[in-house]
Amino acid sequence: MKIWLDGTLRDAEGARVSVLDHGLTVGDGVFETLKAVHGQAFALTRHLDRLAVSARGLGLPEPDLDEVRRACEAVLTANPMPYGRLRITYTGGLSPLGSDRGTAGPTLVVALGEAQRLPDSTAVVTVPWVRNERGALTGLKSTSYAENVMALARAHERGASEALFGNTVGALCEGTGSNVFVVLDGALYTPPLASGCLAGITRALVAEWAGAEEAELPLDVLDRADEVFLTSTLRDVQGVHAIDGRLLPGAPGPVTAKARRIFTERAAADPDP
Ligand code: PMP
Description:
GO molecular function: lyase activity
Pathway: Cofactor biosynthesis; tetrahydrofolate biosynthesis; 4-aminobenzoate from chorismate: step 2/2
Helix content: 25-40%
Protein name: aminodeoxychorismate lyase
Order of helices and strands: EEHEEHHEEEHEEEEHEHEEEH
Catalytic activity: 4-amino-4-deoxychorismate = 4-aminobenzoate + pyruvate + H(+)
Family: Belongs to the class-IV pyridoxal-phosphate-dependent aminotransferase family.
Oligomer: single chain
Distance between the termini: 28 Å
Bound molecules: 4'-deoxy-4'-aminopyridoxal-5'-phosphate
Number of helices: 7
């Protein structure tokens, strides 16, 4: 396996980042996960743009997006595989111990791993922890994912594959690694970015292609929704067939199935929409 580090392709085995990297010591970094189908990254331009937005949000030096694009292409070419997850990590770099960022400059790593196609529906749980819709990291894809790791572990303990967060005002927000959509009386809704959710790339494409409206939704909408589905780079459009152990018969329902079909068709027709 070849990865990209410090401006060049290297064997993953021997590639090393400093133990004083600010990404490791304080979670000072941003990242992207892309899907790669037969060596072709999906929505690369949108992911690069979001990487830059996240980096800017954290006050990291502006990433050289031409280099990141070249790094992605080099890693994809060096590691042929039918279906993979491409990961871009961009951190504050070598720094003194403590929260001040050093002057060495950022660390850029691009790596690829095999991925699996996921089932077209899944179980979710809700968690009592909240997303802070006014937090400094809100909407940025920072590497500080410990809360998501905890919530996802709780989901797995309960036989689910995703955990859903509300926010500080009790509105539905997002999953640990996905956005959420609900169907109410035949209409499709997803929480607005002001809810504190990430500007998911799949969310934006599904909202546009399948015609969803943004709406602030109270958490208990989950008890009333006709259908619920998740979107993310690796889930695509994934129906929800159980919430906190309560079954949603017939999932994935017709609106979910249609959104999934539209997404699959349009994504296949244009790899960089
Ligand atoms: N929310 C969070 C917290 C995520 O980590 C992800 C995965 N990147 C998403 C939503 C979905 O975003 P995307 O569709 O861009 O993968």
